[in-house]
Each structure stands twice: as C-alpha cells, then as structure tokens.
Write a structure and sequence with these properties.
The complex is a heterodimer of chains A (about 625) and B (about 375). Chain A is α+β, with helices and mostly antiparallel strands and about 625 residues long. In chain A, the strands form seven sheets. In chain A, strands 2, 3, 4, 5 and 10 form a five-stranded mixed β-sheet that branches. In chain A, strands 12-11-21-20-19 form a five-stranded antiparallel β-sheet, sandwiched between helices. The longest helix of chain A is centred in the middle third of the chain and has 22 residues, at about 360-380. Helices cover about 40% and strands about 20% of the residues of chain A. In chain A, a hairpin with a 4-residue loop joins strand 11 (about 235-240) and strand 12 (about 245-255). Chain B has one domain. Chain B contains 15 helices and three strands. Chain B has helices spanning about 15-35, 45-65, 65-70, 75-90, 110-130, 135-155, 160-175, 180-200, 200-205, 210-220, 230-240, 255, 270-300, 305-330, 345-365; strands at about 90-95, 95-105, 105-110. In chain B, strands 1-2-3 form a three-stranded antiparallel β-sheet. In chain B, helix 5 crosses helix 14 and helix 14 (about 305-330) packs antiparallel against helix 15 (about 345-365). Classes of the chains: A alpha+beta (about 625), B mainly alpha (about 375).
C-alpha cells in the first residue's frame, strides 16, 4: 500500500511536477492593477472643472465566514457602520465568490484607516484599497455637460472587446462618456506575492499606469457661474455659444443631481429615486428637452416669408386680438394680456416681430402652407440633432404633411399650420437647437455645429444662402425686440451692448383646456428667450428655457440671457488693452488655475445674482 | 502477581528510534509551516511538549501488565461509551462538530481515547474466541461492539475517526479466523456503502451537507478551485510543485504563504512533500513502513493471542491513518480529517499514538512465557 502511495507521489512530483509548479506560481503571484487617474477637464482659460481626489475604500475579506462573523461587531464599532448594514451587505453579496472581497465602506476617513492599520493583526479581515475618485464642482456645477462616471456595465464591457474589466470606472453620461477614451488612461500593474488570504507579502515588478489625457472645454467658468446663478433653481436650461465657432460657453440644466454622489457609490434606492423623480433631474434639458419653441419660431416663419418672396415684404395685418382661420378663432396672446392694450392693431413684419403678434404670423402661416414652413424649419435644423459632442441628444420635431402621413396615417389639417406658424402644436425643439438657429441666422446663415471642446479643428458647419436683405430685416427685428419701444424684451436693454433676440411663451396645453382645469403650476407656460450680441455676426448667443414659470418669455427667461451677455462683455472689456501681450494672456490662465477657482467664481456670481434681483424688482 | 516485564534492554529500541525519527520530521515541518505566520509561532514547542508527555505515558503504560488492562475491558468499554455520549451533550463545538471535552485546561478529543479502548476490547474479544474459525454470531458480536461507539462518533460528526474503527475490526476478525464467505459478504456490503456515499441520490440521505461537499470536491477538485475543492487542489499543487528534490526547508510557497490548508496538522505531508520533494517523501513513508513492519514483527512474537491482537489492532489503526491521510494529501481520497500519526500537530492524536505504542511495548516486554 505504501508502494501505491509512492506511485501517487511519483506522478505528482516527477511526472506532473512542471504543471503543479506553474500552478503554485499562479497562486503566489498576483497582478494588482494600479488604477490610472482619469484626465481632468479644464475650462477655456485652463481652470479646473473636473478633477480627481485620492480616496480609500474599506474592503472586507470574506474567505472565512466564521472569522467575519466573529469580528463583525468590532468592525461595526470601529468604522461606525451599523452592524445590520454590514449584514445586509454580506447577504447581498453571498453569491459572489468567497475570495472576492467586498467594499463595506467606500469613503474611508483617516480615522477608519488608522483603525484598520492598528488592528491589522487582531482583525485580519479588513483591507484598504486605494482608489481615485472624480471630483466635480459642488452644487451640480456644469453637471449635465460633464456627466458622471460609474462602474462599467456588462454591455459596455462586451462592446469594448474586453478591454474593460468588471469594476472599471468609465464615463456614463455627458462628456465623461463622450470623451471616455481620451479621459481614461491605461491601468498599470503591480506583481506581488500574496499569501492565501490575499495579503501582500512581497513585491516583484511594477508597470506604471498611463494617466488619462486632460481635455480643455470651450466652457467659460465665469459665464457658467453666472448662468447657474441666474437660472437659479427653476427647472429649465441655458445654452450659451459662440456662433462664430460653435463653441459652447455655458450649459445649464435644472434640476440637477450632484455627480459627486455617483463618484462614490449610489444605492439602488437613490438611483431609482433619481430616475423616477417627476422633475427628471438626470435629463440634460439643454440638449434633451423637446418642447414647443413658441414665438421664437416666428423668426423661422419670418425668414421663410422673406426668402420665399410670395408675400410682399410690406404685407400688413390688422390684429384685433384674435383672428379666424378655417372657421376657427385663434387668439393672439395680447388678447389675454393683463396690462396694456388687448390688440396689436395694424402690424407689418417688423412690428410683428417686435410685439410678437400672433395674428400676423397666423396669416403668414396660412398663406405659406405647412410645406414651405417645414422646408425652412427642417433646413435650419429642427428635427435634426445639432451633432453636439454629448451623448443622447434629442432631435425635436418639425411637423409636415409627410410626418402626419407616416405617423398618424392621415392627411394634414390646414388648421394645424396656424399653430405651427407661431411655434405651437406638434413642433418641438431643444434649447441648443434654438441657440444654433438664432445664432446662425444672425451670422448670415452660417450654422456651426455646437461643441464643448476648445479649439476644435474642422468644426462642421451648414451654410444657408439667405439674401443679405433677409438677414438685415430679421436681425433688425430682433434688435427691436430689446431696443425699440413696444418690444417684448425691452427690460433686457443693456447700455452699449447691441443685445438682440426673441422671446417665446409656449403653452403646455391649450387656453381652453387650461380654463377647465384649476390653475396648477404643472400646466403653466414655458418661457423662452434666445438672445445674442452684437446685432450682426454675434459673438455670443444664449438660449434660455424656464419651464412652467407662468411668466412670459421676456420676463422669466430674458433676464438670464441679459446676465450672461452682460457678464460676457464685462469680462471682455476688463482685459486692459496694451498691457497684455499674447504670451501673457497665454500664461495668465495657468496662474489662474492655482487659485481656487470656485471661490473666485462665486464672488462674481453673487454680484450677478444681486443685479438680477434688482432688475426683477424694478419691473 | 509478579510482573513478567524484563529490564530496559527488552524495550524495542528500533521501534523507539523510528518513532523519534518520525516525530523529528513532524516537529521540523511544524516549525517550517508556522514560524513565519502571525499567531502560530511556537507551535513546534507545544508539539515537543506533547511528544515528551507522550513518551512518558508510553513508558508508564508499558510497565502495567496488559493482562490487567484486558481484564478491565468491560469497564473501559463502559467509560468509552459514557465519554462519547457525554461529549455529544457537553462537548465544545468547533467547525460545526462536537468532538472536544475540556479537561485540565486542555481540550481532548474523546474519540482518540475511544480508538484505544476499542483496540483493547477487540483484542480481548477475539482472544477469547477459542475456535480456529469465527462463526457468524461472533462476527456479529464483534460488529456490535464496534458499531455502538462508531455510531456515537459518527454522530459528532467525525467520519474520519469512525472509519478507523473499521480496519481495526477487519484486521482482528481476519486474524481470528474470519470465514472467506463472511469476508466476501462484508466486503460487498462495504463496497455498496462506499458506492452509496459517492452516488448523490443515495448520499443525500446518508451524509451531512459538508460531507457531501467534500465528496464532490474530491471527485471534481478543479471545478471550484477557491471553494470546497480548494483544500485538495492546493494540497496537490504543493506536493506536485515540490518536484523530486523539493523547494528546500522553509521555502515552499504553498506552505509559507498559507495555501495548504491546516498545513501543520492534517496536511503536514503536503507541506513536507513541497519542501523536501520526492526524496523527503521516500524518507517519511519509509519510516512509516518500518514502523508498521516493526509492529507486525512484535505481534508475531507476542506471548499470547491477546497480545498479538492488541499489537495488530494498533498496527491496523496506525496503518489506516497513514494510508488515508497520505492518500488525501495526494488527492486520491476525499478530505476526512484524519491526522498523520506523529507528524501532524495535535495533543489528543499524539497521545493516542504513544499510548497505543505503549501497549505494543507492554506486549513485547512480556513476550517470554514464564
């Protein structure tokens, strides 16, 4: 029998010795990834918008359930985690392999680390893991544009041909996702000798991680700060861009979650709450809110009228406060105006833009027909994504005869054209679309693709050869909205700045339906204002949406536009001419990064918000 | 009654030398396996203490005429049953089994004592069968004698120790003149039982979940390398990676980094095989073979049937221990929790071996009929 045993040893130790030698080596040597830090995000002046911070997670080694059970009270006590919580975590992870440790506290304090370090020998089931976490600016600053990161999902891992491993942190939303490949570095590797419970006992080789590259955004932190403060906590969105380049200078969406919450760990419950919140805080309204543009669309209708030349430019309508089309009465907004006259009287195109006369544009719509309207709307990008470098952009909708046929299998009712002509009905747009359209029109028909990376090369553009005359008339109209008596944006007037634009007040439901329902805020109007400066070839164009404010576009959204445009010019004029050389202007932003940026920005911002309030009260 | 024992030259010094050599290997490997890991240092000293104590008991037991011990067999048997019964009620529980009883500041594994007593009881029983052939009634009686404590030990549960009782009975019965027909029937029954244990639909009703898991992991160790098959696989890796020459004392990564399960006790042979290689295994197994041969030789020289049965009972128990433990270490048998005699760390087990050898010495000292 001993002989048989010896044969067994002979087989293992002499015949299969190499195989088992390798297995012993695999046991002994463990490759531990060194997480490469993600690249930072900077604003256009080089100030840090998104950064990393080192952090530790507390790991619980579960190889021996009896040991774990024995030390649970001490761990609960030492880390300040309720014991029931620990038990829940163990229960939830009981199906994972036992050798895989679980994170029981994702954000370890220095006291926690001391606790683990000083109890290494008597509580042998704790370990700490060094991690790098994303740090975003507080209060959801720029949150929807930057997006957030999270652990790679199974589909993401499969899609990338297993370059990602489970547990890898990847961009989930916004720029983090869009530029994930740039931001994400290549993890390094450390080969260490570990004992049977995974504790490192010796160190073999190390391959350093390659950090992710940083990206510089076109976002201007100062303008962003003003935009955030000026919109406040009202649900809505802001997009500010430079129509000359398509660079996005500011982007806000409200309400907003704090992406720092996701940078650590978000519980399934909190995540569910965020997803099911009726206010949809995860939605980036700047690119995803598809809403009726209201009177802002009148600019498209006006452009169509001038370019089509079927209707003489001198065309006038008489507005008694309503108009009758196809046997149905359509009210002009002025009819239910609480102050001032309830009719516009005789109006030409310029007046109609200034005062946003519905009856004029109803008539234009009726005369042109939906085909021509939707031709121009479609050409200018309604119903098409702008192509901004953010995931999940929405396209909006430009209704047409073909569209109703395709979707509803019916003919277009001529009456529908009347509503569409003033931006109501089935037509929907996103804030970024409106910023692009209005900015592009004011730039003579050059529509640059909006984007968030600074100094992007070969930005795609769409050129629309409008006659110079059309552009002149349209921009004059929008200049008048702010700067001429009777304009709907008169309160936005800024001395020395040719702020122009168009307001929009879009009904969520029809007037009739509203009367039947009690005045719930839910059904209040959406306020729009899209403004730009200067009046021709603008440097900045801002689209603002304030949802269900119950106020007119000029009142609710206009001041936000004005604040941003004012801040833009304040900043531009602050640079003292002659004292700053090209080199100095290049180096100063670098110095600026050393300053704690948010503090500075908050100051600028308080000033801005005070001003807003002052103006608001004045009105 | 005059003691027939002779002077010190009549001790089996060869046997003692082999014993000490095996103990030395054990202490060396316990030292190697534990000196570098936190919380286990100094284990080899504890083992030396047990060994010294063991030698003392061995010599003491060898002075007491084994006939006196055999006379007390019924009493010892009663003590054995009471102790096994009480451990089920009072014993302290470890790893889900009640095997230990707390005595004089130490935990003792009662089943180790039971093994010794069963050897004595069987020796007396078979010695008193005066015919050349065992009839069925005697076989069944012997089976009952072993069956009751075996059932109690199984209840703890301790399958390994319970199994040790079987070869003691088998060797005794065989030497006492078991009929071939009976041997055939019992072998068949044994084969059926083993078959049942390995056949899941039946084993479901016979075994505890952890026991079934061990069987499964024995049959398919690679399937769950970190779960239940872990121990066997790690043991095989340790043995295999040792190669012919071994990795050297204190250099086995499987041993030093703790991959071998209970490397200082049940799996000490895996640790030894890793660090000392096939040559070391040859030495260790050679020593065990020498030990067993020496025991058989002593049995042949016994003065009477009782003495012969006593020594062969010890040989059967030790031989079975070595066989099952070493087979487990090379993955040829499932994990049963049987320690390797004299090399594995452990108080009760070590004392059992020395007391058993003490009985052997006892028989040898009184081999001359006077």
């Amino acid at each position: 029998m001993i002989g048989v045993l010896l044969l067994g040893f002979w087989k293992l130790q002499v015949i299969d010795s190499d195989k088992y030698g390798q297995m012993a080596e695999q046991n002994r040597v463990r490759s531990i990834p060194i997480i490469a830090p993600r690249g930072r995000m900077l604003d256009r002046d080089g100030r840090v918008l998104v950064d990393n911070r080192p952090s530790f997670s507390v790991l619980l080694l579960r190889d021996d359930p009896k040991l774990v059970e024995q030390y649970l009270p001490a761990i609960s006590d030492g880390l300040g985690v309720p014991i029931d919580d620990l038990r829940d975590q163990l229960q939830n992870t009981r199906n994972l392999p036992k050798f895989q440790p679980i994170v029981i506290k994702p954000e370890a304090s220095s006291a926690d680390l001391d606790f683990i370090e000083s109890h290494r020998s008597d509580i042998p089931v704790l370990e700490m893991l060094s991690v790098s976490r994303r740090r975003y600016l507080p209060n959801g600053f720029l949150a929807h544009a930057t997006g957030y990161v999270g652990e790679a999902s199974e589909t993401q891992i499969e899609n990338r041909n297993s370059k990602l491993r489970p547990g890898d942190v990847v961009g989930k939303f916004g720029l983090e996702r869009q530029y994930n490949d740039i931001l994400m570095g290549t993890d390094g590797m450390r080969r260490v000798i570990v004992n049977s419970v995974g504790k490192e006992v010796d160190h073999l080789t190390q391959q350093d991680p390659i950090p992710g590259k940083q990206i510089q955004l076109s976002i201007d932190m100062d303008l962003q700060q003003v935009a955030e403060q000026s919109l406040g906590q009202r649900p809505g969105a802001v997009v500010a861009l430079d129509p000359r380049t398509g660079e996005v200078l500011a982007m806000v969406s409200r309400p907003t979650p704090d992406p720092n919450d996701f940078a650590v760990r978000i519980s399934a419950k909190e995540w569910k709450q965020l997803n099911e919140d009726p206010l949809k805080p995860l939605l980036n309204r700047a690119i995803q809110a598809q809403l009726a543009p209201g009177s802002v669309f009148k600019i498209v209708t006006a452009t169509a009228m001038l370019e089509d030349r079927q209707i003489p430019e001198s065309f006038t309508t008489y507005c008694p406060g309503y108009g009758t089309f196809y046997g149905r009465q359509f009210k002009c907004w002025v009819y239910s105006s609480k102050k001032g006259p309830t009719s516009h009287g005789s109006t030409d195109l310029h007046e109609a833009i200034l005062k946003s006369c519905d009856v004029f544009f109803y008539t234009i719509g009726m005369k042109m027909g939906i085909d021509r309207l939707s031709y121009y709307g479609d050409k200018m990008g309604i119903g098409h994504k702008t192509g901004i470098d953010l995931p999940s952009e929405e396209a909006g909708l430009m209704p047409s005869e073909a569209w109703v046929e395709r979707v509803f299998h019916r003919k277009w009712y001529a009456g529908e054209t009347i509503s569409v002509a003033i931006g109501q009905g089935a037509i929907t747009t996103t804030p970024v679309q409106l910023a692009r359209i209005i900015g592009g029109l004011a730039s003579g028909g050059v529509f640059k693709q909006p984007h968030l990376l600074k100094d992007a090369k070969d930005v795609p553009e769409q050129r629309f050869s409008f006659s110079e005359h059309t552009i002149e008339r349209i921009t004059d109209g929008m200049y008048g909205v702010v700067n001429q008596p009777g304009g709907t944006g008169g309160q936005l007037r800024l001395a020395g700045i040719e702020l122009s634009g168009k307001s929009g007040t879009a009904q969520v439901i029809g007037y009739g339906t509203r009367a039947k329902l009690s005045k719930q805020k839910k059904f209040e109007d959406n306020a729009w204002f899209v403004g730009y400066a200067p009046r021709r070839n603008p440097e900045i164009c801002v689209a603002v949406l304030v949802q269900e404010s119950g106020q007119h576009g000029g009142e609710a959204a206009g001041p936000v536009v004005r604040d941003i445009v004012k801040a833009y010019y304040d900043k531009k004029n602050r640079v003292p001419a002659g004292t700053v050389t090209a080199e100095a202007s290049n180096t100063s932003p670098v110095n600026a990064t050393a300053v704690v940026a948010p503090a500075v920005a908050v100051k600028a911002n308080e000033a801005a918000s005070v001003e807003t309030n002052g103006n608001g009260n004045e009105r | 009654m005059k003691d027939a024992a002779q002077g010190s030259r009549d001790y089996d010094w060869w046997l003692i030398a082999i014993l000490m050599a095996i103990c030395a290997l054990g202490v060396l490997e316990i030292y190697s396996a534990t000196h570098a890991s936190g919380g286990l240092e100094g284990m080899h000293y504890k083992q030396i203490r047990w060994l010294v104590f063991g030698f003392a008991i061995m010599f003491a037991l060898s002075r007491l005429d084994y006939h006196l011990i055999l006379d007390q067999a019924p009493l010892l048997y009663a003590i054995c049953l009471v102790a096994l019964g009480s451990v089920l009620v009072l014993g302290s529980s470890r790893f889900g089994a009640r095997r230990w009883i707390h005595l004089a500041g130490q935990d003792f594994q009662v089943s180790e004592l039971a093994k010794l007593i069963i050897i004595i009881v069987l020796a007396r029983f078979f010695a008193e069968v005066r015919s050349d052939e065992l009839d069925l009634r005697d076989v069944l009686k012997a089976g009952m004698l072993v069956g009751v404590p075996l059932a109690l030990i199984l209840k703890q549960p301790d399958l390994g120790t319970a199994l040790v009782l079987v070869p003691m009975l088998a060797v005794g019965a065989f030497l006492a003149g078991l009929k071939w027909i009976h041997a055939g029937i019992f072998t068949l029954a044994g084969v059926l039982l083993v078959g049942a244990v390995f056949y899941p639909p039946v084993s479901k009703h016979l075994l505890k979940p952890y026991q079934r898991e061990r069987i499964t992991s024995f049959l398919h160790p690679e399937e769950d390398a970190k779960g239940s098959g872990y121990q066997l696989l790690q043991s095989k890796i340790a043995v295999g990676s040792g190669g012919f020459w071994g990795k050297g004392f204190g250099n086995g990564s499987q041993n030093q980094l703790g991959y071998i399960p209970v490397r200082y006790s049940d799996f000490i042979m895996a640790a030894w095989a890793e660090e000392q290689g096939f040559k070391g295994v040859l030495l260790a197994l050679g020593l065990y073979m020498a030990l067993l041969l020496r025991l058989v030789q002593n049995a042949q020289r016994a003065k009477d049937r009782a003495g012969m049965f006593l020594v062969m009972g010890v040989a059967a128990a030790l031989g079975f221990h070595v066989l099952v433990n070493v087979a487990m270490v090379i993955g040829a048998m499932p994990v049963t929790g049987i320690p390797l005699p004299l090399m594995s760390y452990g108080g009760s087990a070590t004392l059992f071996v020395f007391m058993a050898i003490g009985l052997v010495m006892n028989v040898r000292l009184r081999r001359f009929v006077n």
